[in-house]
């Protein structure tokens, strides 16, 4: 029997093509998913990686042999697949490894209406079935395979949610990282008062220019330089499957995902006063402050899209944001879409005359460290040492919702979490200014790395 535990992650399936992931395994994943969700059909999309079309076809074969139809939408961003799942009210499968290197591929699965499938909501069952191999269904006619282009409908739907037709003209540099943003951006922004300066729009799953992970500062250097060179109003960087978007201002300076969360939350609350906004525990404390100032109710969650989506469903939240530049919208089936967040930023910018740096300054209230990783053999032991050290101090509050969050009397705080997949502890620090962030980071790391 196969052991697929190494590639079935908490929220998706991901592995090295040809070694961990091949057409035989993927065919069984397709059959197992069809058995889990049933008919009448499953919608499938894929990114631009060389291996994606073949793997998507194998998955479709597994589905149809269970008597379930397949609707293929072909090349797609992950949020376009979520759109198709929501619009058609069908389960979906997206073939992508997001920002991972070219040798990887993977599958993101959802139920009808873009509802997430994770380890606790079906992924464990899919893994167990695929490990044993799934026999073709007996006594039922094979499902059919049809194709449907959803790109135009996807673009039209987003443009209904955020109307950019009447904003002032903007020049925007977009770095697609040779990923799916190069496929979706031209259609979404077509005919709008936005002069798009394209970078790396050629679809190439080998990522010849830089890794398609805009959260790593080295991957936005080209974007920052181009924004300054052409005098753009803003810059956008998408990851490989274009579900995350990172923003830089007219100076080429990064705008934190927490500031984007606060900005979009303010706009959504203006449309839906008194609404609930979800934020994970690593986003800036400015986010709940600004949500309250705008009459909304902030709700804090663990890190991870399954927690965000579940909390959105439970609370009826209108919007949610994460420090990793994932943005979730009730009006987008509670799924994440970086494109819609980017459109909100451009709308906010284009509806007034000031620069993006001035606009976002209102949402950037504190200094932050970003994520600092430490390789630690005894993660639990180091966490316990931090808890003992800071827990003994007067006025310090401890919270173990996700890892350990320590709040100090001066308003500074940090979160220390263990990685689920590597021997790492991840540290995030926020304080009033950069010097305070550095001092607190050094104090915590001295204990973590002792």
Automatic annotation (TrEMBL):
Xref: InterPro entries: A-D-PHexomutase_a/b/a-I (IPR005844), A-D-PHexomutase_a/b/a-I/II/III (IPR016055), A-D-PHexomutase_a/b/a-II (IPR005845), A-D-PHexomutase_a/b/a-III (IPR005846), A-D-PHexomutase_C (IPR005843), A-D-PHexomutase_C_sf (IPR036900), Alpha-D-phosphohexomutase_SF (IPR005841)
Pfam families: PGM_PMM_I, PGM_PMM_II, PGM_PMM_III, PGM_PMM_IV
UniProt cofactor(s): Mg(2+)
Residue ranges of every copy of the Alpha-D-phosphohexomutase C-terminal domain listed in the record: 371-445
Alphabetic keyword roster: Isomerase, Magnesium, Metal-binding, Phosphoprotein
Enzyme Commission designation: 5.4.2.8
Claim: Magnesium is one of the keywords in the record: yes
Keyword Magnesium: yes
One GO process term, biological-process aspect: carbohydrate metabolic process
PANTHER family, per database record: PHOSPHOMANNOMUTASE
Protein name per Swiss-Prot or TrEMBL: Phosphomannomutase
Organism whose genome encodes this protein: Actinosynnema mirum (strain ATCC 29888 / DSM 43827 / JCM 3225 / NBRC 14064 / NCIMB 13271 / NRRL B-12336 / IMRU 3971 / 101)
């Amino acid at each position: 029997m196969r052991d697929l535990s190494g590639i079935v992650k908490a929220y998706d399936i991901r592995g090295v093509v040809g070694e961990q992931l091949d057409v035989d395994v993927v065919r069984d994943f397709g059959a197992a998913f069809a058995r889990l969700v049933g008919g009448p059909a499953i919608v499938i999309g894929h990114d631009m990686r060389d291996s994606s079309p073949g793997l998507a076809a194998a998955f479709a074969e597994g589905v149809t042999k269970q008597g379930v139809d397949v609707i293929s939408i072909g090349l797609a961003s992950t949020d376009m697949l979520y759109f198709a799942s929501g619009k058609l009210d069908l389960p979906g499968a997206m073939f992508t490894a997001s920002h991972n290197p070219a040798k990887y591929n993977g599958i993101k699965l959802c139920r009808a209406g873009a509802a997430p499938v994770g380890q606790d909501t079906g992924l464990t069952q899919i893994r167990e079935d695929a490990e044993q191999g799934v026999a073709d269904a007996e006594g039922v006619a094979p499902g059919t395979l049809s194709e449907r282009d959803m790109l135009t409908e996807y673009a039209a739907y987003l443009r209904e949610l955020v109307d950019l037709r009447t904003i002032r003209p903007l020049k925007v540099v977009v770095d697609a990282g040779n990923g799916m943003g190069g496929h979706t951006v031209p259609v979404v922004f077509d005919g709008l008062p936005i002069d798009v300066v394209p970078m790396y729009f050629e679809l190439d799953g080998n990522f010849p220019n830089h890794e398609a992970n805009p959260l790593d500062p080295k991957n936005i250097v080209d974007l920052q330089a181009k924004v300054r060179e052409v005098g753009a109003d803003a810059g956008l960087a998408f990851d490989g499957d274009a579900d995350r978007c990172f923003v830089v201002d007219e100076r080429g300076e990064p705008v934190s995902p927490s500031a984007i969360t606060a900005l979009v939350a303010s706009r959504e609350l203006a449309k839906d006063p008194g609404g609930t906004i979800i934020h994970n525990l690593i986003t800036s404390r400015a986010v709940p402050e600004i949500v309250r100032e705008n009459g909304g109710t902030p709700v804090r969650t663990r890190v991870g899209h399954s927690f965000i989506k579940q909390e959105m469903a439970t609370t009826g939240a209108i919007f949610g944001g994460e420090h990793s530049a994932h943005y979730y919208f009730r009006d987008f089936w509670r799924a994440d879409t970086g494109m819609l967040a980017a459109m909100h930023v451009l709308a906010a910018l284009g509806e007034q005359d000031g620069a993006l740096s001035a606009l976002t300054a209102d949402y950037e209230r504190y200094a932050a460290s970003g994520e600092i990783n430490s390789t630690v053999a005894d993660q639990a032991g180091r966490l316990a040492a931090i808890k003992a050290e800071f827990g003994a101090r007067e006025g310090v509050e401890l919270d173990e919702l996700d890892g350990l969050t320590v709040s100090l009397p001066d308003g500074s705080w940090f979160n220390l979490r263990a990685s689920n997949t590597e021997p790492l502890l991840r540290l995030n620090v926020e304080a009033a200014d950069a010097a305070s962030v550095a001092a607190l980071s050094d104090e915590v790391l001295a204990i973590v790395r002792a």
